[in-house]
Amino acid sequence: MIAVVQRPFPPLAEKTHRLRSAILISLFVFSFLYIFKPFGLAGVKGNLILVTAAYGLITLTILLITQFLFPVLFQKHYDDQKWTVGKEILQTMSNVLLIAIGNFLLSCYLNFFSWSIDTFVLFVGFTFAIGIIPVTIQALVRQNIHHRRNAKAGSDDNRVIADRKAPSDSRFLIKISREDDEADFQAKAEDILAVESCGNYIEIHRKEGKPILIRKSLISTERNLPIDFFRTHRSWIVNLPLVSHVDGNARGYILSFKNASIKVPVSRSKLNDFDAKLKSLSKG
Known about the structure:
Elements (H helix, E strand, L loop, with lengths): L1 H4 L9 H22 L11 H26 L11 H25 L7 H47 L9 E4 L8 E4 L3 E7 L2 E6 L5 E4 L2 H6 L5 E5 L2 E4 L3 E6 L4 E5 L6 E3 L4 H12 L2
Antiparallel strand pairs: 1-2, 3-4, 3-7, 4-5, 6-7, 8-9, 9-10
Helix pairs in contact: 2-3, 3-4, 4-5, 5-7
């Protein structure tokens, strides 16, 4: 079971997708309560639309907090390269439980329930018991789908790598100016494996020798690199012709290099562009 919850899982979706998901879930809660009228809603004497809308608004508020505020406050926990099946289950169940608590408190305020610890524990415990099984199954199914798809795509990329031609600009001289007025960094393209963002610095990983740390942003660095370099992730740029192997998992790809220990991630949003770029380079 420990191995299962530690499996890589696709990280949080893009902000627009998260917002759309939160709105759709909230609308579902509102519509379900308004149409089926559970929890004594059939006996509401006031405006039923306003009452059910209040439940939907609580749901939306909680989802916005967990989907947007929490990732900012707890960045290490939400690191997309460390997101696992276990974290996904925990995230989803946290949403379910927080929504249950919010709706329970609203129900007490509307006198649908009498406030007591026993009632609270029963309400939240019942919600948890019902939610944990489908949430776990959904997470495992999604992980398996993404893993199989990316593993197959990674295998296809490895065949492209095996058949590719020599890079077109491997001897291109790269010059990266520093923002701290130190001497510029220069090297042949064929000597640079990847460039990693490290806060206000970049770390240049080379075929030989220790990485070079330079005060410069990754965005400005990208402008100085030749066409064979590709932005795989918000923190990484790789020299595509030097990639020796692609491992696909549920998060995306992990790129390896011959005789080097570094592993470079390809984020989910970059997978299609990476595949297309790799194939275009293989054609010369």
